[in-house]
């Protein structure tokens, strides 16, 4: 029998790739409020529910969908999307179906405020509410549904700026509201597992993830995708500083591989976190050269003084020895190959804009 997997944020970037790649391996239901998701990202065979991870009734409707043939179910009263999963959460309804012995094998929680800029200015309160409410509702729902594992997105930005490579045993120095929210996830899961050891909790400190289905993220998408979109429209990408800053660029297919290995692992994982990346560092200048090679363009990027005055991440390089040892993870897609595939699968009609557009317009 296929494992039943609920994916919150399932029509978003990483969620849709997980659902599409694993649609035959697992019985999957994707839940998404469509702020940064798009149902067109999902293969027609993936069961989809439009709704909020903050809303217990929506979570329970997902549970009902495991008992039915494939369907894509719109929300009966779709909320206006302001970017907040937390809007519309009323906290009034207990997990009715969960209390009847319903069973889910694992929950993958990818909903919530998903990047540092989304906490900017006065948005930081709403950003925290969105992240914490969706997380708490989802982890409790997972436990009451008998899930063996609760898996969730953390972030490499939790490390701040420190000596490379970044390993899980290093101290963490969250530099912004986004990374603080992810540190809450990790600490809450540690406490949660201590109280409910029957459900394992597994976090993934994602490095710089790129790949298909990022268009709906627009200015919040990975720099690789944004720079490809800029070049393809004849616009010079804007780079902060001199372009020597580095990132551990990782194709989303490798991210899906790591998550899938964690779901299928027969080990007792307890409460843990894994770095997940390629385990190598590439400068923005080097990345630009690869993009230009495959787009066959002579257009040059525009370099501007870095507007991020404090806590800008200068370098990123994951130590992936733990996830490799425990789960057998091995990245398969080189940066060169990943960029080539991203360009081959370009969907210009889906592009919502980039951070470069925002800077130019301002």
Q: What does it look like?
A:
The protein contains ten helices and 14 strands. Strands 4-3-2-1-5-6-7-12 form an eight-stranded parallel sheet, sandwiched between helices. It folds into two domains: 4-209 and 249-276, NAD(P)-binding Rossmann-like Domain (Rossmann fold, 3-Layer(aba) Sandwich); 214-248 and 280-316 and 333-361, UDP-galactose 4-epimerase, domain 1, CATH 3.90.25.10. Helix 3 (124-144) runs parallel beside helix 4. It is α/β, with parallel strands linked by helices. 47% of the residues are buried.
Core attributes:
single chain; 362 residues; alpha/beta; Rossmann fold; UDP-galactose 4-epimerase, domain 1; 2 domains; two-stranded parallel sheet; 14 strands
Helix content: 25-40%
Question: Which CATH-level-2 architecture of the largest domain?
Answer: 3-Layer(aba) Sandwich
Low-pLDDT runs of 5+ residues are 75-95
Largest sheet: 8 strands, parallel
- Terminal CA distance reads 54 Å
Q: Domains counted in the coordinates: how many?
A: 2
Spatial shape: globular
Structural class: alpha/beta
Identify the strand order in the major beta sheet.
4-3-2-1-5-6-7-12
Name of the CATH first level of the largest domain? Alpha Beta
- In CATH terms, what is the fold-level topology of the largest domain? Rossmann fold
DSSP strand count: 14
Task: List the secondary-structure elements in sequence, H or E.
Answer: EHEEHEEHEHEEHEEEHEEHEHHH
């Amino acid at each position: 029998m296929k494992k039943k997997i609920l994916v919150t944020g399932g029509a978003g970037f990483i969620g849709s790739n997980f659902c599409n790649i694993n649609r035959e391996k697992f019985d999957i239901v994707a839940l998404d409020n469509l702020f940064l998701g798009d149902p067109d990202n999902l293969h027609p065979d993936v069961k989809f529910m439009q709704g909020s991870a903050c809303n217990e009734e929506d979570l329970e409707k997902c549970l009902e969908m495991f008992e039915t043939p494939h369907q894509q179910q719109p929300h009966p009263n779709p909320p206006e999307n302001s970017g907040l999963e937390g809007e519309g959460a009323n906290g009034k309804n207990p997990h009715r179906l969960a209390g009847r012995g319903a069973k889910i094998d694992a929950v993958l929680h990818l909903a919530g405020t998903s990047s540092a800029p989304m906490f900017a200015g006065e948005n930081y309160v709403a950003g925290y509410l969105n992240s914490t409410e969706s997380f708490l509702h989802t982890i409790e729902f997972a436990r009451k549904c008998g899930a063996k594992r609760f898996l969730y997105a953390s972030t490499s930005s939790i490390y701040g700026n420190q000596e490379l490579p970044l390993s899980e045993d290093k101290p963490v120095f969250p530099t912004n509201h986004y990374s603080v929210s992810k540190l809450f996830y990790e600490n809450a899961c540690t406490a949660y597992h201590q109280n409910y050891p029957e459900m394992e909790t597994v976090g993934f400190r994602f490095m710089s993830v790129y790949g298909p289905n990022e268009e709906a993220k627009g200015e919040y998408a990975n720099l690789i995708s944004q720079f490809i979109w800029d070049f393809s429209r004849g616009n010079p990408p804007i780079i902060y500083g001199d372009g020597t800053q580095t990132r551990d660029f990782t194709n989303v297919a490798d991210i899906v591989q790591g998550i899938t290995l964690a779901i299928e692992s027969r080990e007792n994982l307890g409460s843990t976190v894994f770095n997940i990346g390629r385990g190598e560092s590439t400068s923005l200048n080097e990345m630009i050269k690869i993009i230009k090679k495959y787009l066959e363009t002579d257009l040059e990027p525009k370099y501007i003084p870095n507007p991020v005055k404090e806590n800008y991440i200068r370098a990123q390089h994951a130590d992936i020895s733990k996830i490799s040892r425990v789960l057998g993870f091995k990245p398969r897609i080189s940066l060169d190959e990943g960029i080539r595939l991203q360009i081959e699968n370009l969907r210009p009609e889906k592009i919502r804009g980039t951070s470069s557009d925002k800077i130019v317009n301002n």
